[in-house]
Structure to design on (363 residues):
C-alpha cells in the first residue's frame, strides 16, 4: 500500500485592500515629484544627454531673452569637471560631475522673479503668447536645476543685473519638490563686472564625450544657426573657443499669430468660446482666428446652421439669462412670430415649458 505524500500547506494570502483603504492612499502628485521620477521626458535620460540638455536650456533662454530685449546675444558657456568628495579634480573624459555656467549679456531678470524662474517648474513668460520662441513651457531651466539638485544636492547659483545703475543680485535656490516652490538658500547684492545680464551655474552629474550630440558640437551648430550671436565656449579640457558673430543685427522678431480654424481641436474651440470677448458667433470667428474675414465667418455660420448673431456658447457664469426663474429658455432663443414684441422677448414661463415639452416629445 502506498501512502500519499502530504500536500504542502498553502500560505495564507494577505487580505486584499478595501476601497476605503485604497481611497486613503490617494494623494496629489506635484509636478516636480512627477518629473523627478520621469526625468527622461525632459531630456535628462543619461549623464551625457543631461549635460547637453542643461547647456541647451540655458543657451536657449539667453538667446530668447537677448533677442526679445533687442540686444545682440553674447553668450559664454563654461564646463568645468568637479571632484567628487575630497579626491582630485579628474580629467574631463573621466569626470562624472560638472559645473555648467552660462552667462548672457541680455536684459537680466528682476530680483523677485529669480527664485521662481530657476526653482519652480511651469513658470515662465512664453507659454501664453502665440509667438515663436525657442522655449515655451516654463520648465527648461528649472528642470536643469532640479536635475543638478537631485544628482549632487547642490543649489542653482544665479547672478542677475538689469542695468548699470541697478545692483547685481546673487541667489542660491533649490526646488521644494513636494510643493514645486523655490527654497532660497542665499540672497544678497554683490559687485559684478557686467552691467547687465544673467549668469546661471548648475553643478550636476554628467559625462563629457566629444563627437555627435556633444556639447562641443552643439556650440558649433548654435554658432552656425545664430550668426547674429557671439559664443565663447570654455571646454572642460580647458580650451577656449570664440565664435564671433557674422551678422551685426538681430533677425526680425516673430509676430504673434492667432490660430487658424483648421488647426483647432473641438475642446480648444470650446475653451476659446468661453474666453472670447466677442458677443456673436460671427464676431468670434473673425476676431479670434487668423485668416477668417467677416464674410467667411458668416459663411461658416451658415454652413454650420448657426445664426451669425447667436450669442456665444458660454460658461454658466455668462450663460444668457432665462426669461424667468421657472423657464429654461435662454433669452437669446428665436422670438415667437405671433407674439407681441414685449411678450416675445419674455414669453410666459408656461408657454416656454410647454414648448420645451413639445420639443422633447417624440413624434
Ligand atoms: N537668461 C535669461 N534672461 C532673462 N529671462 C530669462 C532667462 N532665463 C529664463 N528667463 C525667463 O524665465 C522663464 C522661464 O525659463 P524656462 O527655461 O524655465 O522656460 P521657457 O524658456 O519659458 O520655456 P522652456 O521650458 O520651453 O524652456 C522664461 O520664460 C523667461 O521669461
Ligand atoms: Mg527655456
Amino acid at each position: 500500500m502506498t501512502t500519499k505524500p502530504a500536500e504542502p500547506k498553502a500560505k495564507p494570502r494577505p487580505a486584499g485592500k478595501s476601497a476605503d483603504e485604497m481611497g486613503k492612499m490617494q494623494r496629489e502628485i506635484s509636478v516636480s515629484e512627477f518629473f523627478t521620477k520621469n526625468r527622461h521626458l525632459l531630456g535628462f535620460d543619461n549623464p551625457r544627454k543631461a549635460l547637453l540638455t542643461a547647456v541647451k536650456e540655458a543657451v536657449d533662454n539667453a538667446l530668447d531673452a537677448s533677442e526679445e530685449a533687442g540686444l545682440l546675444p553674447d553668450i559664454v558657456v563654461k564646463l568645468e569637471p568637479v571632484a567628487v568628495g575630497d579626491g582630485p579634480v579628474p580629467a574631463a573624459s573621466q569626470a562624472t560631475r560638472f559645473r555648467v555656467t552660462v552667462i548672457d549679456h541680455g536684459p537680466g531678470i528682476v530680483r523677485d522673479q529669480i527664485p521662481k524662474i530657476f526653482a519652480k517648474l511651469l513658470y515662465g513668460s512664453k507659454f501664453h503668447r502665440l509667438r515663436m520662441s525657442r522655449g515655451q513651457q516654463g520648465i527648461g531651466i528649472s528642470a536643469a536645476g532640479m536635475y543638478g539638485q537631485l544628482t549632487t544636492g547642490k543649489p542653482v547659483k544665479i547672478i542677475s543685473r538689469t542695468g548699470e545703475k541697478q545692483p547685481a543680485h546673487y541667489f542660491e535656490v533649490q526646488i521644494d519638490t513636494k510643493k514645486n516652490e523655490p527654497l532660497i538658500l542665499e540672497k544678497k547684492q554683490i559687485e559684478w563686472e557686467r552691467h547687465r545680464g544673467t549668469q546661471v551655474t548648475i553643478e550636476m552629474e554628467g559625462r563629457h564625450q566629444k563627437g555627435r550630440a556633444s556639447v562641443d558640437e552643439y556650440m558649433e551648430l548654435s554658432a552656425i544657426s545664430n550668426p547674429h550671436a557671439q559664443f565663447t565656449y570654455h571646454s572642460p579640457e580647458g580650451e577656449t573657443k570664440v565664435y564671433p558673430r557674422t551678422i551685426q543685427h538681430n533677425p526680425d522678431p516673430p509676430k504673434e499669430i492667432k490660430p487658424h480654424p483648421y488647426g483647432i481641436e473641438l475642446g480648444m474651440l470650446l475653451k476659446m468660446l468661453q474666453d472670447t470677448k466677442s458677443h456673436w458667433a460671427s464676431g468670434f470667428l473673425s476676431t479670434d482666428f487668423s485668416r477668417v474675414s467677416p464674410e467667411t465667418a458668416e459663411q461658416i455660420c451658415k454652413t454650420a446652421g448657426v445664426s451669425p448673431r447667436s450669442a456665444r456658447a458660454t460658461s454658466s457664469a455668462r450663460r444668457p439669462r432665462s426669461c424667468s426663474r421657472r423657464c429654461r429658455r435662454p433669452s437669446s432663443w428665436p422670438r415667437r412670430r405671433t407674439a407681441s414684441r414685449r411678450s416675445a422677448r419674455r414669453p410666459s414661463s408656461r408657454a416656454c415649458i410647454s414648448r420645451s415639452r413639445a420639443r422633447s416629445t417624440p413624434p
